[in-house]
Design goal:
about 325 residues, Nucleotidyltransferase, domain 5, five-stranded mixed β-sheet, binds 5'-O-[(R)-(carboxyoxy)(hydroxy)phosphoryl]adenosine, Gcp-like_dom
Length: about 325
C-alpha cells in the first residue's frame, strides 16, 4: 500500500492551523504543508476574546484548508485520514475545527482521529526526528507548562506542571509590564539581546523542591518590583529570560535523571526561544525541538500526532480528553 495522507486541524485558541503529513509505508513521516492564520483582532484587548476567536475560525478555515492542500500539492480527495484537536482549549474555538474535521472525514469516508492538543505539541518534534518512547517531554506554551514521562508510545505520565502561570504567560505578562508588546515571548527574546542578564537579581522559584513542578508568580512579582524601581526594559527582559530558562532546564534535567531518560522533547511556543534552545543543547541530553513554524499552535503537529496514532494502530489519541483534562 502507498503513503497515508493525514490532514491535521487545530483551532484550540487564536490560530487557525491546517497541515498535511504523509505516513510512508516504511513508517517514516513527511511534512507536506503547514498553514496558520494568526488572529490579530485580540491585540487591542490585550488577551484572547473567545467569541471573536470562534468567529474568525469559522470565517478562515475553508481558505486555510485550501492553502494547506495547495502547498501539499493535493486535492481534498487525496486525503486518507483527518485529525483535529478535541481539547484542551476554548470550547467554541475547538468546536469549529473539530466539527469541520469530523464532517470532512465523514464526507470523504476516511477515518477521523481526535487529538489532544498537548500530544500535538509533543509530536511537532516528529518533524525533526523519529519520535519513539521512552522519552521525557516538556510542553511550554502560553497555556501549559507540563512535563510528561513517556515510557511507551501513547502513554503519558504527568511528572510536573506549573502551579500558577504557564511559562509563555509569564513571558507575555512581563513583556506587557515592560511595555514590550504582544506576544511577549518574541519581544522579550529580542529585547534581551540588548540587556544585561545580571541587572535584575531573580531568585530561582521552588528552590529545594523534590518534585518537578514549575511556578512563575515569584518571578512576575520580582519583575514588577524591579520595573517600579526603574529597571530598563531590556535589562528586565534579559534577566527574566535567564532566570526562566535556567529554572525550566534545571527542573527538566532533574526529571530526566530521575526517570533515566536520555531523550527530551521540548515543544510549545516557548520552545522557539533561542536562549532556551541553547541552554537545553548544553545539557548533553538528546534534546529534540519542533522544526520551524511548528513551535506555536499549528495543524501540522496534529497531523503528526494523527499519523503516529495510525502507525501504532490506535483508533484515537491516548490523551483524547475533555477540555479540562490536563488543565493546571
Ligand atoms: O503554543 P502556543 O502558540 O499557544 C498555546 O498553546 O498556548 O504558545 C504561545 C506562547 C505565547 O505565550 C508566546 O509569548 C510564547 O509562546 N512564545 C515565546 C517565543 N515565541 C512564542 N516565548 C519565548 N520566546 C519565544 N521566542
Ligand atoms: Zn498550544
Amino acid at each position: 500500500s502507498g503513503p497515508v495522507r493525514v490532514l491535521g486541524i487545530d483551532t484550540s485558541c487564536d490560530d487557525t492551523g491546517v497541515g498535511v503529513v504523509e505516513l510512508l509505508p516504511d513508517g517514516r513521516v513527511q511534512l507536506l504543508s503547514n498553514r496558520v492564520w494568526s488572529q490579530t483582532v485580540h491585540a487591542r484587548y490585550g488577551g484572547v476574546m473567545p467569541e471573536l476567536a470562534s468567529r474568525e475560525h469559522v470565517e478562515r478555515i475553508d481558505e486555510i484548508l485550501q492553502d494547506a492542500l495547495q502547498e501539499a500539492g493535493l486535492t481534498v480527495t487525496d486525503l486518507d485520514a483527518v485529525a483535529a484537536t478535541s481539547g484542551p482549549g476554548l470550547v467554541g474555538a475547538l468546536l469549529v475545527g473539530l466539527m469541520y474535521g469530523k464532517g470532512l472525514a465523514q464526507a470523504l469516508n476516511v477515518p477521523f482521529h481526535a487529538a489532544h492538543h498537548l500530544e500535538g505539541h509533543i509530536f511537532a518534534a516528529a518533524s525533526e526526528a523519529e519520535l519513539r518512547a521512552p522519552y521525557l517531554a516538556l510542553v511550554v506554551s502560553g497555556g501549559h507548562t507540563h512535563l510528561f514521562d513517556v515510557p511507551r508510545d501513547g502513554e503519558y505520565r504527568l511528572v510536573g506542571a506549573t502551579m500558577d502561570d504557564a511559562a509563555g504567560e509569564a513571558f507575555d505578562k512581563i513583556a506587557r509590564l515592560a511595555g514590550l508588546g504582544y506576544p511577549g515571548g518574541p519581544a522579550i527574546s529580542e529585547a534581551a539581546m540588548r540587556g544585561d542578564p545580571n541587572a535584575v537579581p531573580f531568585k530561582e522559584p521552588l528552590q529545594g523542591q523534590k518534585a518537578f513542578d514549575f511556578s512563575f508568580s515569584g518571578l512576575k512579582t520580582a519583575a514588577l518590583l524591579a520595573h517600579r524601581g526603574g529597571a530598563r526594559a531590556e535589562d528586565l527582559a534579559a534577566s527574566f529570560q535567564r532566570a526562566a530558562v535556567s529554572f525550566l532546564v534545571k527542573t527538566t534535567v532533574r526529571a530526566a535523571q530521575a526517570n533515566e531518560r536520555r531523550t527530551v522533547v521540548v515543544s510549545g511556543g516557548v520552545a522557539a526561544n533561542g536562549a532556551l534552545r541553547e541552554a537545553f543543547r548544553a545539557t548533553g541530553l538528546n534534546v529534540v525541538f519542533p522544526g520551524k513554524g511548528l513551535n506555536t499552535d499549528n495543524g501540522a503537529m496534529i497531523a503528526l500526532a494523527g499519523a503516529a496514532a495510525i502507525r501504532a494502530g490506535r483508533p484515537a489519541s491516548a490523551l483524547n480528553g475533555s477540555a479540562t483534562a490536563y488543565a493546571p
